[in-house]
Amino acid sequence: MDIQQSSQPTAVIQTNTPPDKRRKWLKKLYTQRHIQIMALLGIAWMIIFNYIPMYGVVIAFKDYDIIRTISEAPWVGLEHFKEFLADENFGYVMRNTLGISLLKLATFPLPIIFALFLNEVRSLRFKKSIQTISYLPHFLSWVVLGGILATWLSDIGIFNKIFMALNLIDQPISFLAEPKYFWTIVITSDIWKELGWSAIIYLAAITSISPEMYEAARIDGAGRFQQMWYVTLPAIKATISILFILAVSGVMNSNFDQILVLRNSLNDSASNVIDYYVYYTGLSQGRFSYSTAVGLFKSVIAITLLLIANQVSKKLNDTSLF
């Protein structure tokens, strides 16, 4: 009898157990249903436009044309890759791509320096004015900026007038018609367009630094430059490392939009990069399999550079993407 009575409270405790984790999860999911729907739409967009089209990469290993479907096209293996490596254009296409991209990579510290000095500006009005002026070119497309640069760099453009007024040149120069000036134009115009915008993330990282660190540095006698070197830079080291990894992985990208609007037949020897070569052979010549193979070749190199840069950064700074 005593045993039966003592077992009853146990049954009551079992019936009053809290809801299981699954019910809690479903309830939380329901309360966040609007946010979850927005996230699902983004995931669906990514799958439809980024992942499903990856099936088309298979034509790099086939002899595809628009008459046949991808499945009907015969396999040719690595023939298109071998053809690209043996192409007479391979040498200067790779030279232009790596030359322009490495020079752009060399300008990587400029947004960091700009952000450091902009952070030291005490006048809020002046600081906002500089930010607005430096950000503005980013919001203009390369079609617009290309037209502006073509006008400025023409025979009767403002640069020729300034150089002739300063007696730096004797006669006007058509800068975009000279291959030797093309890389300089590309690099400087890219800095002009993206310097301010690229500095935003560094400014955001700087604002997260505790003011107490600067106060401690000032108490120790550190000047403004010493504070930048010993406080600000170490504090944003992780951000710099991540962005540098991404910059290294993009070495094979030469900004197709910029190249397309600034290039012409006269500067082809300096402006024919992989991105334009893929566009020209794929759309203009209709060599879809060959251009896909060239694009895949570029992507493989980009992934390899990403893995190498990530591993090096992980060992040196203990910071990595994965």
TrEMBL record:
The keyword Transport applies. Residues 93-309 form the ABC transmembrane type-1 domain. The chain crosses the membrane at residues 37-61, 98-118, 139-159, 199-217, 229-252, 288-309. The keyword Transmembrane helix applies. GO terms for cellular component: plasma membrane. It is a multi-pass membrane protein. It is found in: Cell membrane; Membrane. Keywords: Membrane, Transmembrane, Transmembrane helix, Transport. Coiled coil: none annotated. One of its GO terms (biological process) is transmembrane transport. Belongs to the binding-protein-dependent transport system permease family. This is ABC transporter permease.
